[in-house]
Amino acid sequence: MSVPDTPPPVDAAFRPASFEYRIPGAGGAVRWRLAVGSATGTAPAKINEDCHGVSEAEGLLDEPHGLLVALADGIGGDGSGREAAELAVRTLLSDYPATPRSWPVAKALDRLLCAANDWLIAQSRRRREGESLVATLSALVFRDDRYHLAHVGDTRAYRFRDGRLERLTTDHVWPRQDLRHVPRRAVGLDTHLVVDYADGLLRAGDLFLLVSDGVWEVLGEAALHDVVGRAADPQAIAGNLVRESLARQARYMGRNDATALAVRIDAG
After folding, report:
1. 34 phi, psi to nearest 5 deg
2. How far apart are CA 120 and CA 155, in angstroms?
3. Tens digit of pLDDT for each residue in 49-86?
4. How many C-alpha atoms does 193 have within 13 Å on its Cβ side?
5. Residues 188/83, Cβ–Cβ less than 8 Å
6. How do strand 207-211 and strand 59-60 relate by DSSP bridges?
7. How far apart are CA 217 and CA 97, in angstroms?
C-alpha cells in the first residue's frame, strides 16, 4: 500500500479539515481562539467505520453552547459500524445546539447519547443476529473558559500541555489480552448506557486530541507525543498522525481505520 504525501481526506459530510473558531469574553472581546484540524484514512477497498465531525459554528461565536468536536469508531466489518458511528456523531452535532442553555454540558450530552443509544438498540433488534449497530465515542465541548469531555469505549482523548501528553479517558474494554478490542461499554451495546464525563479549565497553549484506536494503538503514546511536539498547526498534527499510522500498518498489513482531531487553544 502506498502512503500519500498529503494528509488523508476528511469526511466530506462534515466540516472542512481546518478552521479557526473564536470564543468571546466579557464585552465581546475575543477570549479564546481555537484552531481545529482533522484527518482520516483507511486501508484500500475497506469501509472506513470511523466518523468525526465539528459543530457548525465558525468565526466569532454567538451560539452560547460552544464548539463541539466528536469522534466515533463503529464496531463491525460490514458497514454497520460506520452507520452506528455516523448516527452517534450526527446526533451530537445536530441536536446539541438545541438543548436548553441552562443545562450543564454533561446533562445535554448525556440526554443526546442516551437517545442515540436507544435508537441503535431498536434498530439492532430489527436486524439479523450478529448485525448490531455499536460505536465507541469521545466528544469535547469548548464553552466559556472550560472544556467538557464525554467518553464511552476505546476512542481516546488527550491533552498536550507544557510539553506533557496526558490521557483524559479510560478504555472501556475487557482486560483479557484476547478480548482487548471487545468493548464493555459503547453506544448501542446495552440498554443502559453509562458515559464518562469530565471537565476542566482551558489554558493558552493547550492542544486537545481525539483519536481512534487505529492511531493510538498503532503508534503508541511515545510516538503520539513525538508527532504532537513536531508541529504547532492542528491540521498538520492530525494529518501526520493518520499518515504515520497508515504507513506503519502498511508494513505489517494492518487494516485499522485511523482518525485524528486536533484542537489548539490560544489566548484571544
Report:
1. -115, 120
2. 19
3. 999 999 865 544 556 788 999 999 999 767 789 999 99
4. 28
5. no
6. unpaired
7. 33
| Cell 466559556, residue located | 144
Place of cell 475575543: 30
Q: How far apart are CA 84 and CA 75, in angstroms?
A: 8
Q: Which amino acid is at 24?
A: P
Q: Quick one: 45 exposed, middle or buried, by C-beta within 10 A (0-12, 13-18, 19+)?
A: exposed
pLDDT, tens digit (0-9, with 9 covering 90-100), for 220-238: 999 999 999 998 899 999 9
Neighbours of 228 (CB within 10 A): 20
- The predicted pLDDT at position 76 comes to 74
Global confidence as pTM: 0.89
